């Protein structure tokens, strides 16, 4: 009988345990939701490394936890760093208040060792500061032509290149900012009238973005290469993506293995920008103004390509230029190793002739050209004692400058050549001149000396900050000042190039409609009608396009498909310079790329027509492609400083959540009570087990 009772008790206990486990799995998520509030839209700072040190932010492995405190003045800074009784703190700072959001204050918070993290608030309707750039005063210092480069970015704070011991997150969604203040800071964490800390419970935050990288790129890459099954986590990866190129009037390898000397005019622009926060690099003036100008030039010159037949024209969009000229240094390396546009393959029937440095007749780079202050732009060229007025390359630059000045006057614009004592601004051209000092080249920019752009490589480098927003979601009906200005610059340059090559004047004009559409897609809303035509797969469209400006940060690419900026620019450049060969399905268009011909390639642009349920669109033939934008340093294992060595740390996730934290003394009380309770129950069970025969009557011969 007793055995049956024990079996029944065991069954009831097992059933109760099973039900409890099932119930806990269902309710655990609900309990967690009641304790924590997760923010899904914050941007965050990450860690990057180069050959000598690391920059950026990281939390601890389990995240950093601290009491939230709104830092609104220097009294709050002192409270958080010194007198506040509830350290560690998570400081909440207005990103638009540069008296608090600056390198000095962040360094003070860091040095206090009482701050677990920083949350920056960027309100949509806030007043943007008149100037802010987290970049240095001489961008890419040490990797250009000059050992002592001039100051081009005087408002630069170098905040981007600092190392911080805590994570930094940015909230920019209106509803999340309101929740943080209304349900957390104002409700629980207001200081007392005497200036002391608010009473418990207090609203706290956990910030987690632990970065696996440490020390410098060389050490980090070595550790990543030591991955095993027991240690599968990498540490960092080289910053890398793709450059984009397109050729008008291309020379085939069947005519010549390498393009002849001085046969090619290069028109280049940078493809990337930068900012402190991952995936939040807009670069409206820093990058997009020059990028859109190049695309307008490509479209206009493609219409008169037959008249320019005596020159091969190479368009280049160079990636990673914000990080010590990654894209341009790789392209120069490829040219010097007979690898650009592609290594010669004897099995391919038609292929582009190799382009090397001697093939380049002139290099024209389109830099920041949004004309922020006046109706003028400047031509910068490299001056050395060896390049006097009798030098052929110098004469070529002078001829182009004279033509551009005259064409500018025809179009009511002022085009001026930089002074003889002036250095080149930071530019991709410097990478080419380091390899070939006597190359003819100019940098086109809207500034003579220091940048007119007061937001260089910052999250404020947007159309709105430059008072040039579209104001509505229809690119065909609205125009921004940026799109009008770059169209004017493109028109002057395209007329100057046409005259330089043909010796004749022309009234060719860059398209204002195209300028408007492109500026809208790159700098206002990448989920635009133009870019949507490149996709038939909705998931791919959602991956590449967004309702905000295009992100132009290079990041890390481990695959063969370019990331957002390079991919969309590749398709756009092909569309603007190519020819429609017919309407067909996407698969039929893709099959054309399998032919033994690399002189042209094909892209599919989605159309609305259908045939038997198969979506038809335009198949465009062009001579456009991509090439690696990964520093030669990682091919050659060269960390000497000759090439860029920037890497990006790996991380598993980035989360930001808030919760209500009780008085730590209450935690101690609960712990003590739990210990006492455990001891008492243990003693009770011990006593019961030793007195069981006295308490329970057990028969000598139990009936089974």
UniProtKB/TrEMBL annotation:
Signal peptide (UniProt feature, chain positions): 1-28
Name all Nicastrin small lobe domain ranges.
45-213
Q: What is its main location?
A: membrane
What Pfam family is a match for this entry? Nicastrin
Keyword terms: Glycoprotein, Membrane, Notch signaling pathway, Signal, Transmembrane, Transmembrane helix
Q: Which InterPro entries match?
A: Ncstrn_small, Nicastrin
Q: Give the membrane topology, semicolon-separated if more than one.
A: Single-pass type I membrane protein
Family classification:
Belongs to the nicastrin family.
The protein depicted here goes by the name: Nicastrin
* Species of the source: Ramazzottius varieornatus
């Amino acid at each position: 009988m007793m055995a049956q009772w024990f079996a029944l008790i065991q069954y009831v206990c097992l059933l109760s345990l099973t039900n409890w486990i099932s119930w806990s799995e269902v309710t655990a998520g609900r309990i967690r939701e009641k304790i924590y509030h997760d923010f899904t839209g914050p941007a965050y700072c990450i860690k990057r490394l180069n050959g000598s040190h690391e920059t950026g932010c990281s939390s601890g492995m389990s995240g950093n936890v601290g009491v939230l405190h709104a830092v609104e003045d220097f009294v709050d800074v002192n409270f958080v760093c010194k007198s506040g009784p509830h350290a560690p703190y998570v400081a909440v700072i207005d990103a638009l208040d540069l008296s608090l959001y600056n390198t000095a204050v962040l360094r003070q918070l860091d040095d206090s060792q009482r701050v677990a993290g920083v949350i920056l608030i960027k309100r949509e309707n806030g007043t943007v500061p008149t100037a802010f750039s987290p970049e240095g005063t001489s961008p890419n210092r040490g990797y250009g032509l000059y050992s002592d480069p001039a100051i081009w970015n005087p408002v630069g704070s170098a905040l981007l290149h600092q190392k911080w011991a805590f994570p930094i997150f940015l909230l920019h969604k209106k509803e999340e900012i309101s929740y943080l203040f209304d349900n957390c800071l104002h409700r629980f964490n207001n200081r007392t009238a005497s200036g002391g800390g608010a009473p418990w419970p207090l609203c706290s935050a956990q910030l987690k973005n632990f970065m696996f990288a440490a020390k410098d790129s060389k050490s980090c890459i070595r550790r990543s290469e030591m991955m095993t099954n027991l240690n599968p986590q990498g540490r960092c990866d080289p910053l890398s993506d793709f450059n984009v190129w397109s050729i008008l009037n291309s020379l085939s390898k069947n005519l010549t293995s390498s393009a002849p000397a001085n046969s090619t005019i290069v028109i280049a622009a940078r493809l990337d920008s930068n900012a402190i926060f991952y995936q939040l690099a807009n670069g409206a003036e820093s990058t997009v103004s020059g990028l859109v100008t190049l695309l307008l030039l490509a479209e206009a010159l493609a219409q008169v390509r037959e008249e320019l037949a005596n020159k091969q024209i190479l368009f280049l969009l160079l990636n990673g230029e914000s990080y010590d000229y990654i894209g341009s240094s790789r392209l120069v390396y490829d040219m010097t190793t007979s690898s650009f546009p592609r290594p010669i393959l004897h099995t391919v029937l038609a292929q582009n002739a190799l382009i090397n440095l001697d093939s380049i007749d002139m290099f024209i780079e389109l830099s920041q050209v949004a004309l922020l202050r006046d109706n003028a732009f400047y031509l910068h060229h490299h001056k050395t004692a060896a390049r006097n007025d009798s030098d052929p390359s110098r004469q070529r630059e002078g001829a182009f400058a004279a033509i551009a000045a005259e064409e500018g006057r025809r179009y009511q614009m002022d085009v001026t050549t930089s002074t003889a004592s002036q250095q080149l601004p930071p530019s991709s051209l410097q990478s080419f001149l380091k390899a070939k000092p006597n190359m003819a080249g100019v940098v086109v920019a809207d500034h003579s000396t220091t940048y007119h752009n007061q937001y260089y490589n910052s999250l404020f480098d947007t159309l709105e900050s430059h008072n040039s927003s579209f104001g509505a979601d229809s690119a065909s009906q609205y125009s921004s000042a940026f799109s009008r200005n770059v169209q004017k610059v493109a028109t002057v340059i395209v007329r100057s190039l046409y005259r330089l090559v043909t010796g004749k004047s022309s009234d060719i004009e860059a398209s204002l409609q195209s300028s408007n559409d492109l500026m809208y897609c790159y700098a206002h809303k990448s989920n635009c009608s133009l870019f949507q035509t490149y996709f038939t797969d909705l998931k791919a469209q959602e991956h590449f396009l967004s309702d905000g400006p295009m992100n132009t940060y290079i990041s890390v690419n481990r695959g063969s498909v370019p990331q957002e900026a390079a991919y969309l620019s590749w398709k756009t450049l092909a569309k603007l310079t190519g020819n429609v060969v017919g309407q067909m399905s996407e698969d039929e268009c893709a099959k054309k790329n399998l032919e033994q011909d690399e002189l042209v390639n094909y892209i599919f642009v989605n159309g609305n027509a259908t045939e038997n349920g198969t979506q038809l669109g335009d198949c465009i033939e062009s001579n456009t492609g991509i090439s690696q934008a990964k520093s030669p340093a990682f091919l050659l294992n060269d960390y000497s400083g000759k090439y860029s060595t920037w890497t990006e740390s790996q991380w598993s996730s980035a989360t930001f959540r808030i919760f209500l934290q009780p008085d730590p003394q209450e935690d101690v009380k609960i712990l003590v009570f739990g210990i006492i309770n455990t001891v008492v129950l243990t003693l009770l069970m011990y006593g019961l087990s030793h007195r069981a025969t006295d308490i329970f009557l057990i028969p000598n011969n139990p009936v089974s």
